[in-house]
């Protein structure tokens, strides 16, 4: 069992994420790749800016990992999140999970990304041609 | 006691700076801190919600604040 959790300011190498969770004992790897979408509610997005409360974000991701290990028989788990300015098509987040059998990998991967979006102190600003908003800030 | 509150995301925009210094009663709790923050920065009340973190953990309203604590305001998160 190996957990690799990082907040990065440079682009993520997806292949090396996959390689790093793979074990001879693995029967499969589930990977979630978040990408920057070009529009929100029909409005063109120019770029996103991510900010993290880094120490706490790492601690919260660690909690998510611990829970995932306690709930599913998974092998290795990787959670990388980027901060800074990202353009359309770039990858702000990647989750990779290996397991002997696919059910555990699928379920744990989904749990990790869903929970990350709810609890990890990272914020996303959408930049449009005519303004910008912090996502989810207002009702 | 004097405390420092770190701000991120929209809270940083509302404060106009990445952290603010506040004077709190010695036995103040998180509820007291939120009350004071909302009084000084009424735009916080327009947020969907926000939490206070004490020493990198989400805090409850009744948690006591100490002068040496690392305190942060956590507006609705939106990572991923």
Detailed description of the structure:
The complex is a heterodimer of chains A (139) and B (80). With 139 residues, chain A is an alpha+beta fold. Chain A has one domain: Molybdopterin biosynthesis MoaE subunit (Aldehyde Oxidoreductase, domain 3, Alpha-Beta Complex). Chain A contains 3 helices and 10 strands. Chain A has a 4-stranded mixed β-sheet, sandwiched between helices. In chain A, strand 9 and strand 10 form a beta hairpin. Chain A is elongated and about 50 Å long. The model of chain A has no long low-confidence stretch (mean pLDDT 97). With 80 residues, chain B is an alpha+beta fold. Chain B has a single domain (2-74), classed as Ubiquitin-like (UB roll) (Roll), CATH 3.10.20. Chain B has 2 helices and 5 strands, in the order βαβαβββ. In chain B, strands 2-1-5-3-4 form a 5-stranded mixed β-sheet. Chain B is globular and about 35 Å long. The relative contact order of chain B is 0.28. The model of chain B has no long low-confidence stretch (mean pLDDT 97). Chains A and B meet through strand 5, helix 2, helix 3 and strand 9 of A and helix 1 and strand 4 of B.
Share of helical residues of chain B: 10-25%
Shape label of chain B: globular
**Major sheet of chain B:** 5 strands, mixed
Into which percentage range does the β-strand content of chain B fall?
Answer: 25-35%
Question: TL;DR?
Answer:
Helix content of chain A is 32%, strand content 40%. Chain A has 139 residues and is an alpha+beta fold. A five-stranded mixed β-sheet of chain B has the order 2-1-5-3-4.
Using brief descriptors, characterize the structure shown.
heterodimer, A: 139 residues, alpha+beta, Aldehyde Oxidoreductase, domain 3, 4-stranded mixed sheet, 4-stranded antiparallel sheet, 3 helices, elongated, B: 80 residues, Ubiquitin-like (UB roll), 5-stranded mixed sheet, 22% helix, globular
């Amino acid at each position: 069992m190996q957990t690799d959790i990082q907040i990065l300011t440079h682009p993520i190498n997806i292949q090396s994420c996959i390689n790093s969770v793979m074990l001879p004992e693995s029967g499969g790897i589930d990977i979630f790749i978040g990408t920057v979408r070009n529009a929100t509610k029909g409005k063109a997005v120019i770029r996103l800016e991510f900010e993290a409360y880094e120490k706490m974000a790492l601690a919260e991701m660690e909690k998510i990992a611990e829970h995932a290990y306690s709930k599913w028989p998974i092998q290795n788990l990787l959670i990388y999140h980027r901060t800074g300015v990202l353009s359309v098509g770039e990858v702000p987040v990647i989750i990779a999970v290996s397991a002997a059998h696919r059910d555990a990998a699928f379920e744990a991967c989904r749990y990790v990304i869903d929970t990350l979006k709810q609890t990890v102190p990272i914020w996303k600003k959408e930049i449009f041609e005519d303004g910008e908003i912090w996502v989810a800030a207002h009702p | 006691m004097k405390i420092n509150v770190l701000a991120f995301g929209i809270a940083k925009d509302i404060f106009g700076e990445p952290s603010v210094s506040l004077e709190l009663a010695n036995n103040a709790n998180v509820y007291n801190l939120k009350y004071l923050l909302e009084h000084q920065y009424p735009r916080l009340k327009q947020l969907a919600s926000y939490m206070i973190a004490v020493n990198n953990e989400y805090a409850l309203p009744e948690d006591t604040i100490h002068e040496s604590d690392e305190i942060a305001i956590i507006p609705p998160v939106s990572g991923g």
